[in-house]
Specification:
This protein is α+β, with helices and mostly antiparallel strands and 657 residues long. The chain folds into 4 domains: 256 residues, no CATH class; 87 residues, Calcium-transporting ATPase, cytoplasmic transduction domain A (Distorted Sandwich), CATH 2.70.150.10; 132 residues, Rossmann fold (3-Layer(aba) Sandwich); 116 residues, Calcium-transporting ATPase, cytoplasmic domain N. The N terminus is likely disordered. It contains 24 helices and 22 strands. Strands 10-22-21-20-11-18-19 form a 7-stranded mixed sheet, with helices on both faces. A 6-stranded antiparallel sheet has the order 12-17-16-15-14-13. The chain has a 4-stranded antiparallel sheet with strand order 3-9-4-7, with no helix packed on it. It is elongated and about 110 Å long.
């Protein structure tokens, strides 16, 4: 029997839960092994301390058991890596343990294995943040849904839910799918999607997202997206992708490890030859184990992703964090990006043979199947005027230019003047045509067959945080902010002046925007483009860092972009740049810490061996025991310093508007 999409969603969700549970169980198993082996190690230490002069067999047996138990996870992982052709940190530790055992230093081997296993468990736990985030997101999606069928509530499993189903969500429940409210009003907590700390009021026709919480009212919702296609589903997928991503500097460190391991082994053999002390090999292998270097990059990346997600910035490709830090030019789309995108009809200017009602009816009917903000404004005004909108038989949308529709055996056009010129539609007979081109409004013309019927003007408002965002972007070292738009020069200049942007490019087609991006890339290097609509998709794809306004942006723009602003907050742009710069700085610091601890530790053990022997004598400890503990301690300190340094990114917060 073929498997349906909903069944695949259920399987995928179950697999996620199993993988998360498996990883959590593995960490707990390692921790239990460490505790069990540690108890035998403690027994060996106490026996050795109290009964050392009698050389009790119990101390040796306890140490052997401790080494056997504690070494098992490390040796198993090392063998798997060797078989698969990968070289990682476990190989050096495994060699150090084997060397200690061969030399009969079971107690020292136990100390090394215990400390290393604790460190490995700590690293896995730290890197499990993304998995825990996925688990939390899974819990936000209910499994039982209240579907309305003939005005009767029927409980169904979420995997039986289909697009266009009507579901009822009561106060205190989570939305199981993306949809549009058709009845009721409520306040919704969208923090899991947009990062907004304050709840948002939702009314009829408002969009709601899966995984967000319904707080105050009962609402009926028409389902628009289900399963992995929901915003929540995309977020979960992106978090999983981010965890596996290797940024350029990460790939360099991976390649470095492949050369590093053989070099360390060769150095250990040389040190053994000159020192004639086999235990020196063990110390070198333990200190040189590059745990701190291995976690230097991923720990910082995961912390940066967590910090950005908390602010409502969804980074689909963490590999761009380095490019973001190098950005010198940012290009903004106008409508829906710098402006609110909620257009209102400001002017209706019909020709001599057309009245206001007819002009509005034709324009609203032609645009009735479009998702453009302009179409929303026309439909809204038509509804207020109680005008009956005609559903066109055919409709073709030309991105950045206009719409052509057919109904009642006639052709209708709504679009820009330049498009009308291409279609040989003459606008010269329109009254107040010159006013349309000089006003600070967006203008479209309306035509029936070969006759231009008039023009309609639309007004929009600048986003409240746009001016402050542009100012802050300039203050943090971005050399240029530019704006591109398909609008007329007058309307574009008005918005650009309000926002504080000097360079503008008007009357752009989608391909013109992409060409403008390519020009800026040749001049400035990495370029960021921010947009929200279908018209912006080519420019977003052409840019080095494409950013989509996620909450209101089109699906095409979202798919083309590598970053989404889920709360449409422009102040997140300077936040993102500052976060990427801080991430780069912390990665560099982590690498410096890792290298310094390894080089410093090796130098100290090679040239300061007598000092360590003297310190061991002061505390009445065996030199080999103390050196084993010191070698493992240097390794632990380096790794913890890196992890704690990366954790500083968790405290990164939004700029204040």
């Amino acid at each position: 029997m073929p498997i349906g999409k909903n069944q695949l969603t259920m399987v995928s969700k179950s697999e996620n839960q199993i993988n998360i549970q498996h990883k959590g169980n593995k960490e707990m198993i390692n921790l239990h092994i460490a505790m069990a082996g540690g108890s035998f190690l403690l027994s060996a230490a106490l026996s050795k301390y109290y009964f050392y002069s009698h050389e009790p067999i119990i101390s040796t047996i306890s140490a052997i058991i401790a080494v056997s138990v504690l070494s098992l996870p490390i040796l198993t992982k090392a063998i798997k890596n060797v078989i698969s052709g990968r070289i990682r940190m476990n190989e050096l530790v495994a060699l150090a343990l084997l060397a200690s055992v061969i030399l009969g230093k079971f107690y020292e081997a136990g100390i090394i294995a215990f400390v290393m296993l604790i460190v490995i468990t700590l690293e896995k736990k730290t890197a499990a943040g993304a998995n825990e985030s996925i688990e939390t997101l899974i819990k936000l999606t209910p499994t039982i849904v209240r579907k309305l069928a003939d005005e009767t509530e029927v409980d169904i499993h979420i995997n039986e839910l289909c697009i266009d189903d009507i579901i009822r969500i009561r106060p205190g429940e989570y939305f199981p799918a993306d949809g549009t409210i058709i009845t009721g009003t409520s306040t919704v907590n969208q923090a899991s999607i947009t990062g907004e700390s304050l709840p948002i009021d939702k009314t009829k026709n408002s969009t709601v997202f899966a995984g967000t919480g319904n707080l105050t009212g009962s609402v009926d919702v028409r389902v628009t997206r289900i399963g992995p296609d929901t915003t929540m589903g995309k977020v979960k997928e992106l978090i999983q992708t981010a965890e596996k991503t290797r940024i350029p500097i990460h790939r360099i460190t991976d390649d470095y490890v492949n050369y590093y391991i053989p070099s360390v082994i060769m150095s250990a053999v040389i040190i053994w030859f000159f020192s004639q002390n086999p235990m020196q090999v063990v110390y070198v292998l333990v200190i040189a184990c590059p745990c701190a270097l291995v976690v230097a990059v991923p720990s910082a990346i995961l912390a940066a992703i967590a910090a950005s997600a908390r602010m409502g910035i969804l980074i689909k490709d963490p590999g761009l964090l380095e490019a973001i830090a190098k950005t010198r030019s940012i290009i903004f789309d106008k409508t829906g990006t710098l402006t609110e995108g909620r257009l209102k009809v400001a002017n209706l200017n019909p020709g001599e043979s057309v009245n206001l009602t007819e002009l509005l009816t034709i324009a609203a009917s032609t645009e009735s199947k479009s998702n453009h903000p302009l179409a929303d404004a026309l439909r809204s005004l038509a509804n207020e005027a109680n005008i009956q909108i005609q559903d066109p038989d055919q409709m073709i949308e030309y991105p950045g230019q206009g719409i052509k529709a057919e109904y009642k055996n006639e052709k209708y056009y709504v679009g820009r003047k330049s498009w009308f010129n291409e279609l040989n539609l003459d606008t010269s007979n329109i009254i107040n045509k010159n006013d349309a081109e000089n006003l600070n409004i967006s203008v479209v013309y309306v035509a029936r067959n070969n006759e231009v019927l008039g023009w309609i003007g639309f007004s929009d408002t600048l986003r409240t945080d746009a001016e402050a965002s542009i100012d802050l972007i300039s203050n943090i070292g971005i050399e240029e902010c530019a704006m591109v738009t398909g609008d007329n020069p007058a309307a574009a200049r008005y918005i650009a002046q309000e926002a504080g942007i000097e360079e503008i490019k008007c009357e752009c087609l989608p391909e013109t925007k992409a060409q403008f991006v390519e020009t800026k890339k040749a001049t400035f290097g990495p370029v960021m483009f921010i947009g929200d609509g279908i018209n912006d998709a080519p420019a977003i794809a052409a840019s080095d860092i494409g950013v989509a306004m996620g909450a209101v942006g089109s699906d095409i723009a979202m798919n083309s972009a590598s970053i989404a602003l889920m709360n449409n907050r422009l102040m997140n742009i300077p936040d993102l740049i500052e976060l990427s710069r801080k991430t780069k700085s912390i990665i560099n610091a982590n690498l410096l810490i890792g290298v310094s601890m390894i080089v410093g530790g090796l130098m100290f053990f090679i040239f300061g061996s007598q000092i360590l022997d003297d310190i061991a004598g002061i505390f009445r400890l065996q030199p080999t025991f103390f050196k084993s503990l010191a070698a493992a301690g240097i390794h632990v300190i380096g790794t913890l310093l890196v992890l704690f340094n990366s954790a500083r990114l968790f405290r990164f917060s939004n700029s204040k508007t």
